[in-house]
């Protein structure tokens, strides 16, 4: 039986993310960053596992670079396209089995950008990316809103998080 994993905001090839997220991505070069994220992914994910990447995969200059990098990652990969996933779709379909904008599955809804609270209420939980180190807070701006779970790599030791871990965190 395969396991199911989720991740977001890997930003492979995006040197500026090292400055934006220096406390959680403490790398000297983007090449060092990319290699470490690939290692951590492959340490958790087996070849037959399912991985949902919730957007902002790659920020390199060429589609060939995306294809070469994603082929190094274990798992059967699905993409919820993010705001930085702007290469021609032909490159993404080469390495992702399915591509969506927003997708309900596993009893919650997946997106890149967090959904509006009225939309989340329909599903109960929005698993998303986009926020990197930040979280959506409740109206009093104190507690993390339990209707949202961010799977950006910054929040999960730069690695994919399992469906079991998501279910445990949202019990």
Brief sketch in words of this structure:
The chain has about 170 residues and is of the alpha/beta class. The protein has helices spanning about 15-20, 30-45, 65-70, 90-95, 115-125, 165-170; strands spanning about 5, 50-55, 75-80, 100, 100-105, 110, 125-130, 150, 160. It has a single domain (about 5-170), classed as Metallo-dependent phosphatases (Purple Acid Phosphatase, chain A, domain 2), CATH 3.60.21.10.
How would you describe this structure to a colleague?
The protein is α/β, with parallel strands linked by helices. The protein has six helices and nine strands. A hairpin with a 2-residue loop joins strand 5 and strand 6. The chain has a single domain, classed as Metallo-dependent phosphatases (Purple Acid Phosphatase, chain A, domain 2, 4-Layer Sandwich). It is globular and about 40 Å long. Helix 3 packs parallel to helix 4. The chain has a five-stranded mixed β-sheet with strand order 4-3-2-1-9. A four-stranded mixed β-sheet has the order 5-6-7-8, with no helix packed on it. Helices cover 28% and strands 19% of the residues.
- Computed CA radius of gyration, to the nearest angstrom: 15 Å
Distance between the termini: 23 Å
Put simply, the count of helices is 6
Q: Class by helix and strand content? A: alpha/beta
What percentage of the residues does DSSP assign to strands (E)? 15-25%
Which percent bin holds the helix content?
25-40%
Low-pLDDT regions: none
Overall pLDDT level: 94
Enter the CATH topology name.
Purple Acid Phosphatase, chain A, domain 2
Q: Output the CATH homologous superfamily.
A: Metallo-dependent phosphatases
The count of strands amounts to 9
Most strands sheet: 5 strands, mixed
Molecular shape? globular
CATH architecture descriptor name: 4-Layer Sandwich
Domains (count): 1
Could you give the order of strands across the largest sheet?
A: 4-3-2-1-9
Order of helices and strands: EHHEHEHEEEHEEEH
CATH class: Alpha Beta
